[in-house]
Model the fold of this input.
Amino acid sequence: MQPTQSKSRRSRLLATVLAAGVAGSVLTGGIMTNVLPSAAEPVTVNTPVQTFGFADVVQKVAPAVVSVRVKEKSNVVASRDDGDDNDQANPLDSLPRDHPLRRFFEFGNPRGGQDGQRQLRPRNAPRAMAQGSGFFISDDGFLVTNNHVVDGGETFTVVMDDGKEYDAKLIGTDKRTDLALLKVDAKDRKFTYVEFADDSKMRIGDWVVAVGNPFGLGGTVTAGILSARGRDIGAGPYDDFLQIDAAVNRGNSGGPAFNLNGQVVGINTAIFSPSGGSVGIAFAIPASTAKTVVQSLRDKGSVQRGWLGVQIGPVSQDIADAVGLANTDGAIVTLPETDTPAAKAGIQTGDVITALNGETVSGPRELARKVAEFAPDTKVDITVWRNNAAKNLSVTLGNLASLDESASAQNDSNKVPADPSSLSGYGLTLSPSDDGKGVTVTEVDPDSSAADKGVQNGDVIVSVNGKEVKSRRDVQTALEEASRSGRKAALFQLRNGDQNRFVALPIAKG
Done:
């Protein structure tokens, strides 16, 4: 029986080894070795069903977004530093080098060169071609883009998302908001168009989708969120930009930023870019602004705005303390221009405009926007704070479009120092001004509060607390009166060249 049992055990062992070989292991030299089975299945993952994306939005709005090609006038075209006449012109080359928009429109040169200066080019040289983005707002061919895209252009071509091209004509532009309206006349089609959203309903953190023509690529989609609103980037008096973090580059200018309902919440206009490309900070004109401007361009070909005719500045806490205001709301008048609606109504330098038609004005930008919303020749009520009391003035607004922006040359005569004397406790050395209007600052103690507030040599003190001064004695008298009345600070009106500003300096003790 033992041989038979031994044989049986050997058979079972052999069967086990063979089975192990089939399962993926063999016994080699007494060592078990793993072998991948030939019938192994690849790894698979059961992904969850995707419930969110931008494809549905893009599919609907993409046909309404176009590329805008602009051929510039033959006598003025952009020249590149690298000498290549075929480079795409930067539509912002016409801006002065110190213009505040330049630091926001750093779109760069796709070839790696630097933007050149605009200059005259020989007649036989090819004209530069600028490119941007735009979008239709009606099925009969009205489309919106940026003014800086079309500025200086002679002919305009619109390229659809299907590649078809149409000629367009310029209906009107508004440089102050950087908007332009084009019109395509086509008998062969009705255009897909989009509508403006109520951007006031957008919340910080809401999704936005940007569609445009970056670097001439056309039909490019990026997404991000609304990251801030009410941004002032120094572009003009009506700055009220939306800030979005979608990737926006050169060529996106004039293109729309959509909400998830496919409505335009903003028009991409500028980027902050130290590097020349997108760093995730872009600025868009709000739909509420664009809607009003575009409607005016469509109806009249231009934008008619009310004009007050004052230079204004913000009210700091120091200024509020100096003039006796309870808060910093309002805009201080640094200079009422001559022969303007404001001057005719009696608005004076040093007045703080606190309300317009009974509505509180929070600051200079809001005042500028509110005035611009009225049509020329509209009569409005202006509330000013003057001599510790509110005063109501009736003003008939002028027409901003008719404003003569040419400035007369200022006579820059040689200054002769005369009897400099110090203003005790304020760190200022003063002398009579050459024209007898004010007192010139000839020296500023760097450790004084005046230096901290930005007072510098050459500034002319025109008034203190609203009273004109012509000598150091006048300044000292005005300061003594302010001290006796319990003021914490005195309001100095300073002039430097043709610029006026206000500085509040703490009343010196002793």
Notes: The mean pLDDT is 78.
